[in-house]
Amino acid sequence: GAAELGPYRHYMQKEIFEQPRAIADTLEGIEGVNPEIFGAGATAVFKDVRQVLILACGTSYYAGSTAKYWLESVARIPTSVEIASEYRYRDSVPDPHTLVVTISQSGETADTIAALKHARSLGMEQTLTICNVATSAMVRECRFAFLTHAGVEIGVASTKAFTTQLVGLFLLTLSLAKVRGQLSAGQEAEHVRQLRHLPAAVQAVLALEPQVIAWSEEFASKENALFLGRGLHYPVALEGALKLKEISYIHAEAYPAGELKHGPLALVTAAMPVVTVAPNDQLLEKLKSNLQEVRARGGELFVFADGDTRIASAPGTHVIRMPEHYGVLSPILHVVPLQLLAYHTACARGTDVDKPRNLAKSVTVE
Ligand code: G6P
């Protein structure tokens, strides 16, 4: 009830602001990289597997899509990510040396459980879940488990479950990297230090809320929006578009920015806001030229830019500066203002934020 909401208007807003605490709780007790946090015997299994297969739905699928970048670049292990409802009905080529990873807030999503069982029926016995509910079917079904400590998530649109899933997936990446000889002691210490600083870093991003509210007032009158990201931040763009469509009912889609000219550029007019995730990474210069393509067609840019990107506000280009660039963990920071943008836009449109029409928190039927 209202008492539990404290100063917040909705559970979604409360849950967005709980993220520093949720991440800290998820990291509690973790001092270094130890595969056995996933369960006894994980070290031997992690040494033996040749690839990772991630299965999930919805926002959890976008957490998995982000993890693919980490697993391939940091742990150097081939990774595929599949939407559970597709994988379970598709002919695929199984390899018994696969680590099957399911990601689920509830641990009860019917398609994800069915996809897990399907993978097992194909001879893939090594199963691991990143899950928020200790007593769930998913945790019972999987050999290994990492519990996110997001706490109960009530808002249908997932927020703190997503960022804590990313923390769990990064720990999985580091564990696989370590047992496979891809992680020096120095790199391990640096990654762990960055993880431990995350709650403070997310807190600093939450302080951007007033600037995001100012944008949301303009967004509330739109019927379409395009989200752009590249590389590691493409799944964050997808998640930002999903949040906006789920709760504000504005049609939104996400594209990897390099793909603009193969279709979505045809949609760009002055009536099309283009939200862009702009971290200061190796794709920055490419992204900037993509943004020029949008401006040249009159599209209005809303850019979440890291401090040193030299992307400046100008007519038709609005910029919110992110407090710090965060290397490979940057998606965990960049998703937060997109959650806030969806939330405040939905509030401005007066929708039922915590219970959007036609959607359920947990989809336990096919
Ligand atoms: C529903 C929820 C989403 C969630 C998805 C997967 O669609 O509304 O927020 O991402 O299910 O749920 P899971 O519990 O498996 O993460």
UniProtKB/TrEMBL annotation:
It is found in: Cytoplasm. Its EC number is 2.6.1.16. The active site is at residue 361. It catalyses: D-fructose 6-phosphate + L-glutamine = D-glucosamine 6-phosphate + L-glutamate. Its main location: cytoplasm. Residues 42-182, 215-356 form the SIS domain. It is an enzyme of class 2 (transferase). This is Glutamine--fructose-6-phosphate aminotransferase [isomerizing]. The lineage of its organism: Bacteria, Pseudomonadati, Pseudomonadota, Betaproteobacteria, Burkholderiales. The chain holds residues 244 to 609 of 609 of the full protein.
